[in-house]
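We give its fold:
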Amino acid sequence: MSKKFWIDENGQKHYITGEVQTEGKTIDEEVEETTEKLSKSFGSKIDAMINEKLAPSIDKLNKVLAAEKLFAKDPSEMTKSERIVNFFKACVNKDVARVKALSEGTAADGGYLFPDEFRAEVIQKITADAVALRNLVRVIPMSKDVMKIPALTARPLTYWTAEGATKTTTSAEFNEVTLTAHKLAAIIYATDELIADSTEISVVDLIIEKFADDIKLKENQAIAAGTGTGQPTGLTQASLTSKVCSGNLDFDDIIDTFYLLSPQYRANASWLINPVNIKELRKAKDSNGRYLWEESAQLGQPATILGLPVYECPWIPESEIYFGDWKRAYYLGDRQQMTVKVTNDSETAFTKDMTGIRVVHRIAGITVLTAAAVKLTTIP
């Protein structure tokens, strides 16, 4: 049977017999209380150390659990953003069944069709930009890759007639135009961790924004100056009524170009001008030394020339300026499907744990009414 003792300042043991009180407590109570205090003190420190070391892993585990919870939802119960996130994750994880459940089908080239929500987000970000030429032209939805449409080449004849008089027929001249969708491909590389942890919509928003920026750039280039070979036919390929610049570019040439366009198209017309020529026109002044260039009083709106919007377009040649009602002049065929392929087969992608996401967007384009646009040419 063990005996209780205490040690004095000289290291001598003093055995205890009977119940000894210390400040109103027995030795047993004092020992129990001290032990509890030490346990709490060291326990909290140990807990803090464990949390500090395990916090990143716990956070990652919570994200994985959240992602799995989101991923387990039925597609019909998902929000638009959740469908986009889950589609990306399913593609990267090569979950074919999930991809099919979330996609709109399988594309002819073997890729999967993005959910409509993804394409809608990309197009929305493109059209939100004031300099997107898609906003200026007429967009024709295409349900297939080739579409034939009638294009008006001459306006109908309108005339006065007396009451009860025999009416002659009036006709408009139509020409058939074929819109052939061309592939526009964009690819972005994302780390596997970024995709795996993408429970937050902001990650996918970033990917959508990158694709939208690149697609907008290529669309603008095609609408303005596409060659028609493997890409849409741009405005610069059209046979438009033109005026030769009289010498160095000045506002007299701009005024002549303005009146070269038929009055019926001027109200909704706008200018497409190379940045080099914009710089020259901004310097032009009237006889009183006032600048003729008119900056917009509203933030985000284009400047104007003769009251009509000016859009900076680097793909229009420096030697030309275009002016027209673009919704009547040009059709942009919009194939309303967007496909995706993912890969990490390249050496760089594999070694860096990255996944390549390749998006294919299909568009067509051609000038359908040359009378609705004119150009100033031979600018020195």
